């Protein structure tokens, strides 16, 4: 069985939600890209929230953290190469990037 790995656009949108919550973007926006389950997307957002928190970045207080590890151990850094680069963006620049992903997705459907 092959893993259904997250694509970069999904990771970008999940990271935005992890940092800023679901006010502008939510799981349904992400689901439109690859038709991934909402439960899977929610877990990915929680994993990213946990990674960001471990690295000292602010995250949305409305998103719970999920590492899949006991509390005294750090979680994996899956997709950290993408996530860490997004931490350099202002909220506004990040939102514009996300809106471009979503609008490009709408055009291709």
Structural class, from secondary structure content? Answer: mainly alpha
The main β sheet shows up as:
none
Q: What is the approximate shape? A: globular
The count of DSSP E runs of length 2 or more, i.e. the number of strands, is 0
Rg, please? 13 Å
Low-confidence blocks of residues: none
- What number is the mean pLDDT? 90
Q: Could you give the order of the helices and strands?
A: HHHHH
Into which percentage range does the β-strand content fall? Answer: under 5%
What's the helix count?
5
Q: Helix content range of the residues, please?
A: 55-70%
**N- and C-termini, Cα separation:** 27 Å
Short description:
The chain has helices at 8-20, 27-34, 38-54, 80-86, 91-108. The protein has 5 helices and no strands.
Notes on the protein architecture:
By secondary structure, the protein is mostly helical. It is 58% helix and 0% strand. The chain has helices at residues 8-20, 27-34, 38-54, 80-86, 91-108. The radius of gyration is 13 Å and the shape is globular. The N and C termini lie far apart (27 Å).
How is this fold's topology laid out?
Elements: H1 8-20, H2 27-34, H3 38-54, H4 80-86, H5 91-108
């Amino acid at each position: 069985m092959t893993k259904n790995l997250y694509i970069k656009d999904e990771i970008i949108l999940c990271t935005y939600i992890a940092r800023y919550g679901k006010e502008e973007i939510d799981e349904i926006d992400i689901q439109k890209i690859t038709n991934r389950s909402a439960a899977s997307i929610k877990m990915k957002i929680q994993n990213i929230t946990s990674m960001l928190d471990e690295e000292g970045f602010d995250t949305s207080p409305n998103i719970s953290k999920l590492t899949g590890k006991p509390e005294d151990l750090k979680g994996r850094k899956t997709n950290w190469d993408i996530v860490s680069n997004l931490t350099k963006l202002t909220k506004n620049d990040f939102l514009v990037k996300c809106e471009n992903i979503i609008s490009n997705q709408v055009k291709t459907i």
